[in-house]
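Pair request: fold both.
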Amino acid sequence: MKVLSLFDGISVAQLALKGLGIIPETYYASEIESQSILITQHHFPNTIQLGDVTKIDFSQFNDIDLICAGSPCTTFSSSGKRTGFDGESGLIKYFFDAIEIIKPKYFFLENVVMKTEWEYEISKRLKCSPVLIDSALVSAQVRKRLYWTNIPLNLPVYNQHIYLKDILETNIPEKYYIKDQDSFVMKDPLKKDKEKQICIGLKHGRNYQGSRVLSIEGKGNTLTSSKTGEESLLIDPETNLIRRLTPLEYERLQTLPDNYTAIDGVCHTKRYYSVGNSWTLKVIEYLFRNLSKYNF
């Protein structure tokens, strides 16, 4: 199997294929973030890095079985500038170009839930509609994403009922705890629906994301390319104090192997960034699983 992965990040696509017993004959990756490349090459040293997607001549590739991409969501996202194709998210055009020029057997595209007109335009170009999957079904993180693919799928994805309490580390270093503990006003943490995020505190002063602290009985917020681990503040069950998530807990929220990003040369903040900017592994394995039925 020959794969071309655009905006490859830390190569979760390659990790998913490996989990399904599929070892690509050739895996080309387009990525510009140096520490994400370090992580990929540590785990998959045979990866052929192509660099900037805007400088790739797709006519040089042939016999590619799968082209996949998690193109930038910055200007599609409701938390971004909302300029659609006119911003960074317009880089999706290189995925379209690759599909049209190379004509792979299969394609796969991930992006955020977006305005209907933008979703329609992507669907029109790819001649298929996306499936919407929330990573909360297979992880302790709420993460709704759209997936366009011509890989045969077996839906639905079943809920595995995983919560923050299931992914926590123990003996957390002091540096992860919030210093201004008294600025949180505690609320009643009990709610009947534990599938949803459970707000048990409000922050006054510094604007933490969502101004909320989460119960470990609930789900974490959607991870982003944060460099601090503050997406999902929680009350540590060992100390009863509010703290940030650790990089390892970030990895677990994305269902990655423990310490997947703990590589020499990759700094603490880049671990947060690279994991928040990647895919939920179990979702990708689910969407790729029918590829194992085919001979490439």
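--- second member of the pair ---
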Amino acid sequence: MRNQLDYRSETLAWNLTNGALHLVRDKVASTLPYDALVICSGATDRLMPVMGWQYAGTFSLGAAQIALKSQACSIGRQVVFMGTGPLLYLVAMQYLKAGTNIAAVLDSSRLRHQFAALPKLLARPALLRNGLGFISALRRAGVAVLSGVEPAEILGSAEDGVSGIAWRDAHGKRHELACDALAMGYHLRPETQLADLARCAFRFDAQARQWFPEVSIEGRSSVPGIYLAGDGARILGADGAENAGRLAALSLLSDLGYPIVASRVEQLRRTQMQMERFRRGLVQAFPWPHEQAARLPDEAIVCRCESISAGELRRVVCEMGAAESNRAKAFSRVGMGRCQGRYCGQAGAEVIAAASGVPIELVGRLRGQAPVK
């Protein structure tokens, strides 16, 4: 079997055209033709801008985790974790175990959201227990774990970086806390650029307020021969990605005429449906704080790559009629930077929707363009 595999490590897929994947490895470009393609592109942090998030010392939760796991170092001496979702508590717990001084964990979701989601979260009781255990361990260690928080601003300066965080509690009272680093994130977003280049259809998920590629539970996309699995299609976690990958592989084999065991597919389907129910529970328990986008000060940076402020984005909406993501991108350069809108695209769409007074789904999504990463 091994001599039938062509495994290419450290290889970047930067474009996709009909029947061909375009690659770069060691600065050498190549083209790889395919009859069928399974895209497992993973996920990136989902971020909501806050005043001052461009200061040095502000990291995404994923970047903070990479620093700890790959470089064995903390992002700061006194760290605040802010946002919502399971990754918030997982990374905070990892930093606690590493001996980092954690100033606070600030969660924008409220306890009532989490209680309401319990019936769905009980679809995977072991994961629910793990999450509750992380929160309990953080509190036992003396870490302040606060819910219902609305970030106000990251304190500091362009010269000296982060010096603190300010937030409002559920009653609107402002609080401030000193820190020298901050990790933030609001769950994850699927990395869908390759699916977009493959011309897969997308559908807006009103609960998650995200555009997801259309995919069957067996992993078939809207394009024949293109299969989607893992967090690049739906955020289901590591074991959910493995299960989705098995389903996509069996679908591919079946579509190519190879015999598969129907009972195995049905077992994987049931597991996937259980994981999907849990995913819905997470979305309900840790909602995307879209209201914060409408309240961003005009001087707050939305697109860090191009230094586009909320005020500039509102200007092109109100004065130039750019009530659609790609039109606003053309007029303001929001999403044209190195991250290609992966960090600012969804929050930018929320700013556009609030400024134009249209539903978020009518704002659309930034279209993927090569080269992607």
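Observation on the second member. The chain has a mean pLDDT of 94.
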